[in-house]
Amino acid sequence: MKKLALTIVSAMAMTGAAFAQGYVNWAPAIADVSFQTNNTAYSPLFGGGSTGNTGTGVTEFANVGFDYALLYQSTPTGVLSTDTSVWDGTWSGASGNGGVGMTGGNTTGLTHGGVSAATVNGASGSSVQVNWANGVTNSIILVGWSVDLGTTWAGVSNLLSALANGNSTPIANQLAGQVGLFGETVIGNVNPAASSPGNPMFATSGSALPNGTPIFELNTPLYVIPVPEPTTLALAGLGGLGLMLFRRQRK
Fold first, then answer.
1. β-strand 217-224 against 181-184: which pairing, if any?
2. Quick check: 238 and 231 in contact, CB under 8 A?
3. Least enclosed by CB within 10 Å: which of 41, 158, 167, 185?
4. Which candidate, 39, 30, 34, places its Cα nearest to that of 219?
């Protein structure tokens, strides 16, 4: 009986630890993280290279909306320093359910000025509760993209994952000839506070704080994603089919 009681108490303690939550804070230094479009170079995350265009890209994409998401990753072996495949499913951050997602963004074109209209878990504010407790440090990263790629990180990350694995059809169909842009900040880390208003996720410099190293990066580029147009993919498919038929006829 004593063993059973001890087992129940231990299980309750583990359950409580699993659902323990901490608090982090967006304000005021979110203004010290800003993005700019770049239409002169393809994303280095997908091969890089020149797009053949000129200019800063701000004018060209002035009427395109942008969304952002703050993602986190549990890193028990130590916080990350870089990640070139942030779409691989190892990062979490959808708004709600204890995540640290941001919806909305700068819908009037990107210039040096930071992220505007930041909305945390569906409500504007500076403090948010996350699903890991004080005493646990997780990696964090802010990603941004043009809304022609989609309006949710789940949808956008699926497109980027397929592209990274050699399948460009889903993202080409999504863009339908439009230009898609994507970028990500440097990686930070944070140990959340036990109560509101929480520990900062952004800072006015890249210096480490007692509760982690907040994100600080001015002018993070949103690069063009190199994707063939759907018509190009269709022609390539027809060309391959024609070659197969020709080989059959030769036989």
1. antiparallel
2. no
3. 167
4. 34
Amino acid at 103: T
* Amino acid at position 168, single letter: S
Decide if 112 is inside a domain: yes
Domain containing 179 equals 19-250
Read off the pLDDT of residues 167-178 as tens digits, 9 standing for 90 and up.
Answer: 999 999 999 888
Q: How far is CA 136 from CA 13, 17, 36, 85, 194, in A?
A: 17, 11, 33, 23, 11
Is residue 5 included in any domain, yes or no?
Answer: no
Q: Each residue of 222-236: pLDDT tens digit?
A: 899 998 866 544 444
Number of domains in the chain: 1
Which stretch of 105-109, 157-161, 180-184 has the lowest confidence by average pLDDT?
A: 105-109
Q: Compute φ and ψ for 246, nearest 5 degrees.
A: -65, -40
Q: Taking a C-beta distance cutoff of 8 angstroms, is the pair 132, 138 a contact? A: yes
Binned at pLDDT 50, 70 and 90, residue 60 comes out as low
For residue 105, tell me if it sits in a domain: yes
Read out DSSP for 140-154?
A: EEEEEEEGGG-SSHH
Mean pLDDT, rounded, for 111-129: 56
The answer, yes or no, to whether residue 241 has pLDDT greater than 90, is: no
| Residue owning tokens 């190293």 | 213
Cross-strand bridge partners of residue 222:
37
**CB of 99 closer than 8 Å to CB of 153:** no
DSSP 27-82: TTGGGGEEEEEEEEEE-GGGT--B-S--S-STTTTTT--EEEEEEEE--TT---S-
Assigned domain for 8 exists: no
At 216, the amino acid letter reads: F
CB neighbours (10 Å) of residue 24?
30
